[in-house]
Amino acid sequence: MSTPRPWTSRGSSLDFHDPVLNALAEASRFYRRQLGSWVYDYLRERGLEDAKQLRFGLGYAPSGWSALVTHLRALGYTDEHLLATGIIKRTETGVLYDLFRDRMVLPIVNAAGHVVSFTGRRPDEHDGPKWLNGSTTEHFDKSINLLACRPANDQP
User: Fold this and answer.
1) What whole-number distance in Å separates Cα of residue 124 and Cα of residue 135?
2) Helices in the chain by DSSP H: which ranges?
3) Dmax over Cα atoms in the chain, in whole Å?
4) Are strands 59-61 and 103-109 parallel, antiparallel or unpaired?
5) pLDDT (tens digit, 9 = 90+) per residue, 119-137?
6) CA 100 to CA 105: how far, in whole Å?
7) Which tens digits make up the pLDDT trace of 43-87?
8) 20 to 30 Å CA-CA from 95: which of 46, 50, 86, 138?
9) Which residues, at least 6 apart from 71, have a Cβ–Cβ distance to it below 8 Å?
């Protein structure tokens, strides 16, 4: 299995000893590369042009059950790393799946500018919670980490 690729935050290295933060940064890149579907129209209707969509790290979680799981595994992340992100879950039968599916996603960053989780909005025509946050983890607690619209650390 390959070693997860390093990620940089505004020119300074992340703690490469923390593969969970690296996996979250990779998830952010993945979601930004998927941006499309209904999300473009939704954001434009609200006055957010394409440049701002990219600047603030907005992305799209594909509708499949394991697109992100497959992507992160291909980069060498273990199931333990994936579960520790709070955006991957395990079924009762042990299969991992993406928490965010067919949702616009926004990164949640900590004070150092590292992605620690995501929040996601479903399309209006779907059932379920309109907004969904990643689970509480070692790096993310929604009572501490606020969603802050700030420029993304890197470009897709």
Assistant:
1) 23
2) 19-33, 37-45, 50-55, 67-74, 79-84
3) 43
4) antiparallel
5) 999 999 999 999 999 999 9
6) 8
7) 888 887 665 566 678 899 999 999 999 999 999 999 999 999 999
8) 138
9) 26, 30
